[in-house]
Design a protein that fits this description.
A hairpin with a 5-residue loop joins strand 1 and strand 2. This protein has a 5-stranded mixed β-sheet. By secondary structure, the protein is of the alpha+beta class. It contains 17 helices and 13 strands. It folds into 2 domains: about 260 residues, DNA ligase/mRNA capping enzyme (D-amino Acid Aminotransferase, Chain A, domain 1, 2-Layer Sandwich); about 120 residues, no CATH class. The relative contact order is 0.09.
Length: about 425
C-alpha cells in the first residue's frame, strides 16, 4: 500500500466532525442573530456556508464561534462539516498588544510560510465531485473561477473527506501583489474530516495535479522576522515592495497561526483601496444621523437621498468591505477624530452663544452681534440655537475632512 493509499484509507475511516460538536447551536444562532455570522445556502445542494461578517470584524467580536466561521461548510441534513477552513488568525502585533482575542503567542518553534495575496479557496468533496467555495460564497466570482480551474485538473490523488485550503490567484483578482499572468490554486493547509490538521507535506502530495504549494521560508527568531517586515525584506535580504510580497504566516508547533505583513504592503493596500477620510466622514454621518430625514442628511453630507436609501442606511459597513483588516484601526481613529472635532465645535458654539444670548429678544441686534463673533465657523449655528433647533448636523458638516492629494500624478510621466 502506498503512502497516499494509507492516508486515503485512514481519512475515509474517520467520522465527520459535526457542526454542533464544533459550535454549540445556541452560540451559533446568537452570532447569526447579532449579525456577526452570516449563513448562505448553496443554490442546489443541501449545504450552508458560515462566515463572519464585516460588522463582526470591525467590532472585533472574536470568540469561539466567529473565529471558526471563515468559510465553514456544513451539510444541512446531517450536520456534518464537509469543509473546515483555517480559523481566523491575527497579526503578531495584536498578540503582542494583549488584545483579548489574541493571547500571547506560544513559546514554541514555528514554521514560516509565504502570505499569499489572493482569495481563499475552500476545496472539498461532496456528492461525487470536488467543489470550491470562497470564504463567503459558493458562487462568488473567485469561487466560480476556481471551480472551473479545478474541474480541468487531475484530482485523483485528493482524499475525499479532507478540506484543502488554497489561495486563488489570477490576474483579474489581483489585490496588491503582482503575480503577472499566474493562474493558480496555492495550497496553504488541509484538515481531515475529524478536524485534525494534516501536515502540509502530506497534503501537498495529493495536490500536485491541482496547483502549487505555498513557499516555506527558513525558520528564524520572531524578532528577526518582524525586522524583515519593517524593513520590507524577504529572508536572505532581498528587498520587497508592496507589489512583490504581502508578508508571512507563522505556524507554531501547537497549530496556532499568526501573520506579519510587510509595512510597504500595508501602506500600498491602503492607497490602492482608494478609501479616503471623507468617505469615512460621509458614511459615519449617514449612520450617525439615521433618525433625521434622508433628504436633510444628504444635503448636509453632499450626497443624495437615493444614495442613502441604496446603502440601506449602513454605508460604513459596505465601505469597510473595501479595506483590509489592518485599516479597521485607521477607520476607528478617523471616526474618533471626527467626533472629537464635533464635540469641540459644539463647545465653541455653546461659548459663543453665551456671549450673544442676552440679545435674543432683538433679532436685529442679535444678528449684528453674531457678525462680530471672531470665530466665523460658529456663526451659522447661532440662529439655530436661538430658535431652539439642534446644531449637530451643521457642526458635523463643518468638520468634513479635506480631500487628500492623489496617489498618482502624471507630471513626471
Amino acid at each position: 500500500m502506498t503512502i497516499e493509499d494509507h492516508h486515503r484509507e485512514e481519512h475515509m475511516s474517520q467520522a465527520y466532525l459535526t457542526l454542533h460538536e464544533l459550535l454549540p447551536s445556541q452560540e451559533l444562532a446568537a452570532a447569526i442573530d447579532a449579525g456577526h455570522v452570516t449563513r448562505k445556502t448553496h443554490p442546489e445542494l443541501p449545504l450552508s456556508l458560515y462566515t463572519y461578517t464585516r460588522t463582526c470584524q470591525y467590532e472585533r467580536v472574536w470568540n469561539s464561534v466567529t473565529t471558526r466561521c471563515r468559510g465553514l461548510v456544513a451539510d444541512d441534513a446531517t450536520g456534518e462539516i464537509v469543509a473546515l477552513p483555517l480559523p481566523k488568525f491575527f497579526n503578531v502585533g495584536e498578540h503582542q498588544a494583549g488584545q483579548p482575542y489574541a493571547p500571547a503567542l506560544p513559546d514554541e518553534p514555528f514554521e514560516v510560510y509565504d502570505k499569499v495575496d489572493g482569495s481563499l479557496a475552500v476545496v472539498f468533496h461532496y456528492a461525487g465531485r470536488w467543489r470550491v467555495a470562497s470564504k463567503g460564497s459558493f458562487t462568488s466570482a473567485q469561487a466560480t473561477w476556481a471551480q472551473r480551474l479545478l474541474d480541468g485538473k487531475d484530482t485523483a490523488a485528493l482524499v475525499p473527506g479532507v478540506t484543502y485550503l488554497a489561495e486563488i490567484l489570477y490576474p483579474q483578482n489581483r489585490i496588491v501583489v503582482d503575480y503577472g499572468d499566474r493562474r493558480d490554486l496555492v495550497l496553504l493547509a488541509a484538515f481531515g474530516k475529524d478536524g485534525t490538521e494534516i501536515a502540509l507535506a502530506d497534503a501537498a502530495a495529493g495536490w500536485k495535479g491541482v496547483g502549487s504549494v505555498v513557499t516555506v521560508w527558513p525558520a528564524m527568531p520572531l524578532a528577526d522576522l518582524l525586522a524583515l517586515t519593517e524593513s520590507n525584506r524577504l529572508p536572505g535580504g532581498r528587498a520587497a515592495t508592496g507589489t512583490d510580497a504581502e508578508g508571512f504566516v507563522l505556524r507554531f508547533a501547537s497549530g496556532v497561526r499568526a501573520k506579519a505583513k510587510l509595512s510597504e504592503y500595508v501602506r500600498l493596500h491602503k492607497v490602492l483601496t482608494g478609501v479616503i477620510e471623507r468617505d469615512i466622514w460621509r458614511s459615519h454621518g449617514i449612520q450617525r444621523f439615521a433618525g433625521l430625514p434622508a433628504k436633510q442628511v444628504a444635503q448636509a453630507l453632499g450626497c443624495s437621498a437615493t444614495d442613502i436609501e441604496a446603502s440601506g442606511g449602513r454605508p460604513l459597513d459596505a465601505l469597510l468591505e473595501q479595506v483590509p483588516d489592518e485599516f479597521d484601526t485607521w477607520v476607528r481613529e478617523v471616526i474618533a477624530r471626527i467626533e472629537k472635532d464635533v464635540a469641540d465645535r459644539e463647545c465653541a458654539i455653546d461659548e459663543a452663544y453665551g456671549t450673544v444670548a442676552h440679545l435674543a429678544g432683538d433679532r436685529g441686534a442679535f444678528a449684528r452681534a453674531v457678525k462680530e463673533l471672531p470665530d466665523t465657523a460658529v456663526r451659522p449655528a447661532m440662529f439655530l440655537r436661538l430658535d431652539g433647533r439642534p446644531t449637530e448636523l451643521v457642526t458635523y458638516r463643518s468638520v468634513r475632512p479635506e480631500a487628500p492629494d492623489p496617489y498618482l500624478t502624471d507630471e513626471e510621466s
